[in-house]
Amino acid sequence: MLTGTIAPNAARFNVSARSPESGILGDANCGGFFAAAMRKAGFDRLIILGRAEKPSYLLLEDGKISVLPAEGLWGMKIIEAQDQLKVRHGAGTTSAVIGPPGEKLVRMAAIMTGKKNAAGRGGMGAVMGSKNLKAIAARGGETIEVAQKDALRALRVKQQNDLKNSRVVQVLGKVGTPLLYEVSNRLGAIRTRNSQDNFFEDTLNAEEIEKFSDKMLACTSCVVHCRHRNTLGGEGPEYSTIGLLGANIGIASMEQVITLNNLVNDLGLDASSIGTIIGWAMELYQRGLIGDDLTGGPLRWGDYETVYALIEDIAYRRGFGDKLAESTQAARFFPPEARDYLIAVKNLPQSDPHDVRYFKGFALGIAVASRGADHLRNRPTLEVFKLPDEVRAKIYGRANDPDPTGYKDKGLIIAWGDDIFAVTDSLGICKFVTRGFNSPHLLGYEEFC
Ligand code: SF4
To answer: How far is the CA of 68 from the centre of ligand 1 (A)?
Structure first.
């Protein structure tokens, strides 16, 4: 509802479809600049039915919609495809695109905009691919009407000041979500080698990114700027990518993690699912449940070159990569006990690097999240920071047990998170500025109203 207006961090769009990864209703939420561009092109929402006969893309412009042939675009990776759309329709064109994995119906394929922003969860890129839809490009300068302009402007100024004075916003603007890695690692709560361990190297701490980061970037109307521009040609990584393409598969070099991050983003894959699925395959190999006859060669923890090649093989459905491209459904190629080592709920691989055996609130959250094992439905991040009792009571509306390893009051916290994140997603506001996600001082129902 607020996307593209001057409301703080109102940058997001949502994609919903039956998920090819889980088989149930899926959706993915994404920041960047596309959502505002789509509204300025005159469209609040699109319902896409059926399938084009040939590879195509949609152009949204000044309230009109055209279906155009994707000749010359099909097969391109994410950055190249967006650049090509700018060449065709002008530098002011912003687009959401799929890469080769979406075209080849890889169940972990994402829809991407910019170098890194991903509607990543649930294989929404494969849904676009199944419709022969390579991209949605938007351009136009329509004004987004709001009922009370002056009131919204005054609120924006106030909220911007409040947010800038928030300690957590200041830290996010400096190091981004990777700040969570060190905190969780110290607690012994980082998924490591497919959760066989819960502690990994400190070479993946946030300060290591500084060597490869030359700027912090923002989405539309963002006051935080939480996204790194890295000097290896991409953006990120986030905490989830560091955990899942680092500790979870045994890679301790930040440079290698950033390179893998850039690779999955430019191919158009969900970094969370792919890190979980590769970690699963590595443990199956370690335990002898799968062998070289299936994998085509050794699959060892921390083997960067093999992981790099395997990600490309998944994207293009080659060799063993073709099997893993099925995500959790690859279990049908493995012995029955392989499922015992799969970290997933409702057939969706777990997205968060937290080892939820430590955080009981997180464990409940991913167990009940509607789209499967996912932290963005109800993530109780504040569990990590151990806040004073009175602050917790103020957030959740009544006193509650602060012990992240205990079971008491976790239902209250998760239900509270589920409600406020549903509101945030509906408004199109980034969760990072939502009360309860990172800080008790950020936006809540009162501000949303
Ligand atoms: S806080 Fe980060 S993810 Fe959220 S709108 Fe800003 S840059 Fe985008």
So the answer is: 32
